[in-house]
Design goal:
By secondary structure, the chain is an all-alpha fold. The chain has a single domain, classed as ACP-like (Non-ribosomal Peptide Synthetase Peptidyl Carrier Protein, Chain A), CATH 1.10.1200.10. Helix content is 48%, strand content 0%. It has three helices and no strands. Helix 1 crosses helix 3. It is globular and about 40 Å long.
Amino acid sequence: MEMTSDQVLERVKRIVVEDLDVNLGYDDLDETVPLFEEGLGLDSVIVVELISFIEKRFDIELGDDALNMETFKDLRSIARVIREQLARQQV
């Protein structure tokens, strides 16, 4: 069954709140806020953990082409890349 953009985004937000040690509440997460620096302030260690959780929860493997700053700009862009990956696997 194909997930909607909102469903993917919801799951990514849950991973950030429940699995990562970031001290953020679900309601604190705006999917358009940058993940780094002036945004949520995530560091590279947290992002590596995030990638690992995403790959496990969605049963996907993010290719090298997806592992870049553009993908991890914000939660919305991460969700878009996950949906693209899920669509590729269903072919």
